[in-house]
Amino acid sequence: MEKPFTVGRLAKQTGLSPKAIRYYEQERLIPMASRSPAGYRLYSPKIIERLKFIQKAKAIGFHLDDIRRILELTDRGKPCCDRVYEWSERRVQELDEQIKFLSRLKKKLIFYRNQWAPENQPPAMPESEICKLIDRVELPEGNKS
What we know:
- This protein is 56% helix and 3% strand.
- With 145 residues, it is mainly alpha-helical.
- A hairpin with a 5-residue loop joins strand 1 and strand 2 (41-42).
């Protein structure tokens, strides 16, 4: 039987921070660690494979909730590849929406940045005033947040 891993040793082995590992435990992505008599978390060496899976799924854009569902299905011995495909389709659509939003945001910021160029500004705005550059930005209709 292999010796259990402390959170520090597991962090070195996976490249994750101890804080991330504890967070994954708190979020039920990995099983709760047993405890040593001194109170240290002790993880099975098998957990390395699971942590690497989490890292890979995150690296391609899956949310932790999706990863949790995949792992829960796997833990129950259920096939999950069809669901992973469906979730990846949904994630691609979400990313398309984010790209559109960020593109619009970038255009707005470039527009205002050009207006804010030093040569377009009145001389010597007092430092004590709120930034007049942002204060002059128009809010779109319906955006009161």
